[in-house]
Amino acid sequence: MPELRKDPITGRWVIISTDRARRPSDFAAETVRIEKGRFCPFCPGHEDKTPPEVLAYSNESLRGDARWSTRVVPNKFPALRVEGDLDRQGEGLYDCMNGIGAHEVVIESPEHDATLATMDEAKVAEVIWAFRDRIVDLKKDRRLRYMMLFKNHGEGAGASLEHPHSQIIALPIVPKRVQEELDGARKYYEFKERCVYCDILRQEARDDERVVIRTEEFLTLCPFAARFPFETWIVPQRHESHFEAIQEREVYNLAWMLKTVLRKMDKVLEHPAYNLIIHTAPAQESFSAHYHWHVEIIPKLTRVAGFEWGTGFFINPTPPEESARFLRE
Ligand SMILES: [Zn+2]
Ligand SMILES: [Zn+2]
Ligand SMILES: [Zn+2]
């Protein structure tokens, strides 16, 4: 019997098919392969092929002609631009504003074929510091209300370049998907006076069924109402609404966690394409007791089809308990 499950944060329903549960080998997904040799604007020596960097780190482990270990540059083809004033307009019932924002690329390593799963932990930690430092800097621009940090890995997940990189889009509005989480978390808090994510952490740790890995700093789980097979969340154990308030100890633990989880996915799902996002509270709001930042990782194993498109309701062919079990073992 398939099961309908409701996400306790957003109230969104999903259908979990339990009868014909699909195993990792049942998905005919793309395997991400990295081919060297093609021209790459993110490789060392090609720094002039990107706009000037807004941040660069270097460290002792650099080899060859690399002068940097992590580099952040504005996107050459930005979705939004920093220049100009924020101007809102209405055309009858239609609202619009000019495309103020920022679009940056975090080049995670000088090595073309490195991935977050294969880099060493210190390197992944450096990438997390770059995320934090850029958000702290972008926040100073009061027009920018939300920083969306995301990574598309593999063509199947929307990556157009294979060199390891992530992106930050700073928006003059709070996006709807995030607003749904914020509203849901606030309602829960008003009713129970507890953070829904903290409650999820407590209950999942107790049940253990959907837990992939647990450390003192983070809990990695496949969520109860997962929309996609092998959807995985990494949630900090310490309540904090804003990602950029991450502490040093947490940066290193998150680096270890990310690397470990992505290595497990590579093993179980044979190097899948994936999207990784960081959900955090709006940039210009202060600490909130009801929202709790987290990482979501979605391997691209299925396509969003007509039913999902029409309803916003997802059919997930792999129960999260199964996904968690495969990733744990
Ligand atoms: Zn490259
Ligand atoms: Zn919390
Ligand atoms: Zn989220």
Brief characterization of the structure:
The chain is an alpha+beta fold. The protein has six helices and 15 strands. The protein has a single domain (3-328), classed as HIT family, subunit A (2-Layer Sandwich).
Summarize the structure in words:
The chain is an alpha+beta fold and 329 residues long. The chain has one domain: HIT family, subunit A, CATH 3.30.428.10. The protein is 26% helix and 22% strand. It has 6 helices and 15 strands. It has helices spanning 121-138, 176-192, 196-207, 248-269, 306-311, 320-328; strands at residues 3-6, 13-16, 55-57, 70-74, 88-91, 94-97, 102-107, 146-153, 165-171, 211-214, 218-221, 232-236, 274-279, 294-299, 314-316. A 10-stranded antiparallel beta sheet has the order 3-4-7-9-8-13-14-12-11-10, sandwiched between helices. It has a 3-stranded mixed beta sheet with strand order 1-2-15. The protein has a two-stranded antiparallel ribbon with strand order 5-6. Helix 1 packs across helix 4 (248-269). It starts with a strand and ends with a helix. One zinc ion binds next to helix 3.
Name of the CATH class:
Alpha Beta
CATH homologous superfamily?
A: HIT-like
Which oligomerization state do the chains in this entry correspond to?
A: single chain
According to CATH, what is the topology? HIT family, subunit A
Mean pLDDT: 93
CA distance, first residue to last residue: 26 Å
- Which spans have pLDDT < 50 for at least 5 consecutive residues? none
Structural class by helix and strand composition: alpha+beta
> Strands of the biggest beta sheet: in what spatial order?
3-4-7-9-8-13-14-12-11-10
Largest sheet: 10 strands, antiparallel
Mind telling me the C-alpha Rg?
Answer: 20 Å
Estimate the helix proportion, in percent: 25-40%
Total of helices: 6
What's the CATH architecture name?
2-Layer Sandwich
Q: What is the β-strand count?
A: 15
- Which compounds are bound in this model? zinc ion
What percent strand?
15-25%
Principal-axes geometry comes out as globular
